[in-house]
Amino acid sequence: MHLRPIAAVLAVLSAPLLAAPVEIAAVEHPVVATVERYTVELPERESIAYAGLFRAAFPRGLPAAYGSGLRFKGYEADASLSFWALTDRGPNGDSPRYAAGGKPLSSKVFLAPDFTPRIGVINVQLADSARLASSLPLKQDGKPVSGRPLPPESSGSSREMPLDDALKPLKFDDFGLDPEGIDVDRQGRLWIVDEYGPVLAQVDAKTGEILQQYLPGAGLPAILAERQPNRGFEGVAVTPAGKVVAAVQSTLDLKGETRSSARFIRLVELDPASGATRMFAYPLEVDDYKRAGDAKLGDIVAIDETRFLLIEQGKDKNKRMRNIVYLVDLAGAQDLSGLTLADGRALEYGDAQALAALQAGGTVAGSSNIVSIGAPSGLRMARKTRLFDLRELGWTPEKAEGLAIVAEPGKAADATQLAFVNDNDFGLKGRVGKDGDPEDFQVDAAGKLQDGKGNATDAAYAIEAGEERDTQLWMVHLKRPLKDFFPK
After folding, report:
1. By percentage, how much of the chain surpasses pLDDT 70?
2. C-alpha to C-alpha distance for 380 and 408, rounded to whole angstroms
C-alpha cells in the first residue's frame, strides 16, 4: 500500500493529535517504518446522556470511550479494516476516599451509574479515516449489566465505593463488570476479561449476551483473587487452537504484602474444551520501576500457540511514562500451578536470589516430587523481547489498552501491521479545588468533603473535561514481519 508522505516527520511526531481524521508519517526507527494516527469518529448516538451537577462541562453529553480492548475482526469488501473494540465500566472520575466508619475506602464518582459496558466495531479506511460503525451492550440473562463495583463482601470486590456526582453513595452491583480486553475464537464467540473479579467471560458476538463466566475458584485458579484491587485481568488472547490466555494487569498482592516486591505478573491459560488451566510468569525488570506494583500490562494478542505480543506500561522510577511492546514466548515456561517456595509461601514472596535459584534448578515444592538442587527443572519464566516503546513514535496518551495484529487467521507471524488504541477514561477527570488530587481528601456518608485528616474544608469537588478527549487509533507498520523478530 502506498502511504502519503509528510515532509516534516519530526514536527508531525512532536505535535499533538489534531482534529484531522488521519496523520501519516515515516519514522526513523529500527523496527517501525510508518505510523498512521487516527481520531476515531463517534456517531452522536454514542454520546452518554448526563444532566447532573457538572453538565455545563459536557454540553453534548459524555463522550464514549472504546479503548479498553481491541482485536482485528477482518477485512471488509472495500478492503477496509474492522476491529472489535470495548468500553470499560463507564464514565467515572477519581474522587475522595469514602470515610463512614472504619478505614476509608477508595471511591469513584459514576456520572452515568446505569451505563452498560459496550462492544463496538471500529472501521478503518486506511490513509483516510476511522469510525465507530456499530455497538451493542453486554447483557446477562437478557438484562444489561452495569459497571458499578461489586459489593464489599464479594470475592471480586475492588474495595471501591461508588458515589454519585454529589458524593453520595450509590448501590453496588452483584453482577457489575469492568471489561478490559476482547478477542474472538474460531466459532465466532467473543472472549472478554474484567478487572474486578477478575472474570473471564464468553460472549455471543451477535447479541452481547454473556454465555459463560470463569472466576477465581470457579473455573480459574483461586490465587488470582489476590490481584490488586481493580487490577484484575487487563487483556485476553485466543490462540489458533482455541486456548484462551488472560493477563493479570499487575503483580498479585498476597495478604497485602507482595504488590511492591513480586518479580513477575501472572498469565493464565484456559482450555475451554477441558476446563484445564495453567499459569505462567511474565518477568518484570523491577529495577526499572520505583515499585514492582507500578508496572501494568495493557493488552495481549496471540501470534501462535506460544508466542504473543504484549504491552507493558507504567511510570518508571524516574516518573517517565512507558508503553513498551514486547514479544513474549511461553515455550519452555513452567506451569506455576501448585508451585511454591520451599517454605510453602507463594512464588510472589521470592526475591531475586530465591527465584534465580529456582530458575537454575533449585528447591521447589510442587504437585509432584520435590526437585533437588542441580536438577534440570525449576521455575522457568516466559521469555520477552523488546520491540519498541510507543513513546518513541510520538504516543502521548497515558494508557495503551488495545493491541491488535492485522492478519488473516493463522497468518499473524507474517503480519507487518499492528493497531493500538488508547483508553481516554471517557474524556473526564475529577479534581478538588483548582487542581487538588481528590484522593488526598475524604468524604462522609452525607457527602460532606473533608481534608485527609477528616477536618471540614471549603474546597469543592468537581468533574471536568480531561486532557485526553479523543479515542486515538494508531496503525503501526513494521519494517519486517513479526516472525523476523522471534529469538533465534
Report:
1. 92
2. 32
